[in-house]
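Q: I'm building a small set of examples for a reading group on sequence design. Run inverse folding on the following structure and report the sequence directly after it, with nothing in between.
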């Protein structure tokens, strides 16, 4: 004997209503977001490539600008070196004034009662325009030194840092002579 069991379920009323119709848009929204994601990824990828190419171009331009700046600096350094050489030559020329007129003026300024015991004219190696004068005069004293300084001043030289030491019969005088352009 065979017993047949049938589905004896009774029909039930819907406990809940079906899904709202707006939920039918969920798959559409999913595909829309997926497409937007792909588009944004593509946009950002292309933007990154454009940025990298502009960065490479800016790097090249920066390297060219630095090379040009280095060229200008090297040419400026050459000009500065030439200028320093020219200034050195100008200082040398300024310091090349002949000292013979100074020595002759000092010798001619000596009076009949005084004699020049020692005369030294030395140029300063760092500043050739400055000449160090050492003079020892026997007899005559301060008046003779004053006459000698007047004859040196007549040649457009000025004394700087002058020192005078009076001894028994002699007077020692030291000063730096600087030529002044009048």
């Amino acid at each position: 004997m065979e017993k047949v069991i049938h589905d004896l379920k009774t029909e039930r009323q819907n406990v809940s209503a079906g899904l709202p119709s707006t939920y039918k848009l969920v798959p559409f929204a999913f595909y829309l977001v997926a497409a937007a994601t792909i588009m944004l990824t593509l946009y950002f990828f292309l933007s990154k490539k454009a940025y990298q190419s502009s960065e490479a171009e800016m790097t090249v331009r920066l390297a060219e600008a630095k090379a040009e700046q280095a060229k200008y600096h090297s040419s400026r350094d050459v000009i500065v070196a030439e200028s320093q050489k020219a200034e050195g030559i100008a200082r040398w020329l300024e310091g090349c004034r002949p000292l013979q007129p100074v020595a002759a003026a000092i010798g001619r300024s000596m009076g009949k009662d005084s004699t020049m015991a020692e005369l030294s004219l030395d140029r300063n190696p760092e500043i050739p325009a400055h000449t160090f004068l050492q003079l020892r005069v026997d007899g005559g004293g301060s008046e003779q030194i004053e006459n000698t300084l007047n004859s040196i001043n007549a040649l457009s030289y000025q004394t700087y840092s002058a020192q005078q030491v009076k001894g028994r019969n002699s007077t020692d005088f030291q000063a730096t002579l600087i030529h002044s352009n009048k």
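The chain is about 50% helix and 20% strand.
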